[in-house]
Specification:
Distance between the termini: 49 Å
Radius of gyration: 21 Å
Number of strands: 33
Number of helices: 1
Strand order of the largest sheet: 1-27-28-29-30
Structural class: mainly beta
Length: about 375
């Protein structure tokens, strides 16, 4: 059977269209590594520690591995530099100076990185060369990167505004002002955008209408409300005073809350009915949110500001005692640990490998 030029062209366009859909579905990567912001990674976990595949040294202390995307490992340091490292070889491809402190790395869409800084600047950076595409100047600290959806970006600023902007041009499309400081990375799920403020409020906006659907109030003012993890119809966020809140993401009604033995600083990781989270005193919990009971817990030492991640049936945790630990998710059994000389950043998983930073160095484990 012979196809004419028109039929061949139709088939080519169909294939290109399919590849475009497939690529775009994978290219919109969230800071948590998945679309639900639940810090769960589907892949083959590392159940035995066999040394490092490579090491990379940044120019300054305080290195943190923020994410892996487009075969690049992104690291930021205490002086405001963002490093793009070849994830296979550990070699530096480029670095970008953000002109002020970075509290977190970028979010990535297609061939572009989007970054927030302590001086309130939102940057768009070309991944191929590390050059700036454009910048937005807000009126306050943008301590975390924007959330990305379709062709729009959403960023929280200490000037009490949610910024909504065009990803290609950087043009601000709208702002939503709250009564309290905004900080963190908004979460998008079910076409709703979720974010906390420092007045103890948790907001939900319908992206289709741009209108606020509900606000949940904790009746407590605190700057330590985290960005939420969203799983199914529940949103999970924590407050530094040791309270984990679980809210219905559709109605804004409180589902339940848990009081931990210590202060909480990071959103939990979630798989199925298990919630895994840690206190600043390095107490790691695994809770069943259906039965509301503790499944297992692990108590370490030192001050911890990281959150655990889950890869299939293994939980990884950078303890405050400078130790990276791997636990069986269901039983809490310690599978392996690795002690470092400096504190360890939150680990990150990609393609059968764990990445983490300690001091000036970034490490890859396979």
């Amino acid at each position: 059977m012979h196809l004419n030029k028109f039929q061949i062209m139709k088939k080519v366009l169909f294939i290109l269209s399919f590849l475009s859909i497939l690529f775009n579905a994978k290219s919109q990567i969230k800071i948590s590594g998945n679309s639900n912001h639940d810090f769960y990674f589907n892949g083959t976990p590392i159940k035995e520690f066999n040394g490092y595949s490579w090491e990379f040294e940044a120019e300054n202390d305080g290195a943190e591995i923020s994410m892996i995307a487009n075969s690049l490992a992104f690291c930021n340091d205490s002086k405001g530099y963002l490093y793009a490292i070849d994830s296979k070889t550990g070699k530096l491809l480029w670095k970008f100076y953000a002109e002020s402190k970075l509290y977190d790395g970028p979010n990535i869409k297609d061939n572009t990185a989007y970054l927030g800084t302590a001086m309130g600047t939102i940057f768009s950076i070309d991944l191929s060369n590390g050059k700036e595409n454009w910048r937005i100047q807000t009126g306050g600290n943008v301590c975390n990167p924007p959330t990305l959806k379709d062709n729009m970006g959403y960023a929280l600023s200490h000037d009490k505004k949610l910024y909504i902007f065009d990803l290609e041009t950087g043009a601000i499309q709208d702002t939503i002002r709250e009564k309290h400081i905004l900080c963190g990375t908004p979460t998008i799920e079910h076409n709703n955008l979720f974010y906390p403020d420092w007045g103890g409020n948790f907001h939900c906006i319908d992206l289709a209408t741009g209108k606020k659907t509900w606000t949940f109030n904790t009746n407590e003012n605190s700057k330590w409300f985290t960005s939420p993890s969203v799983y199914d119809t529940l949103a999970f966020f924590v407050k530094l005073d040791s309270t984990l809140y679980v809210v219905n993401s559709t109605t804004g009604q409180e589902h339940w809350r848990f009081k931990a033995d210590g202060k909480l600083s990071r959103a939990p990781s979630i798989k199925g009915n298990l919630i895994v989270f840690t206190t600043t005193e390095s107490h790691l919990y695994a809770l069943d949110y259906i039965t509301k009971e503790t499944v297992w817990d692990y108590k370490s030492t030192g001050t911890n500001w990281t959150h655990p991640i889950i890869v299939n049936d293994v939980a990884y945790f950078a303890s405050g005692n400078k130790t990276l630990c791997a636990f069986d998710l269901l039983t809490g059994k310690l599978l392996w640990d690795n002690v470092m000389e400096s504190g360890i950043s939150t680990p990150y998983y990609d393609n059968k490998a764990i990445y983490f930073a300690s001091g000036k160095k970034v490490y890859k484990i396979e």
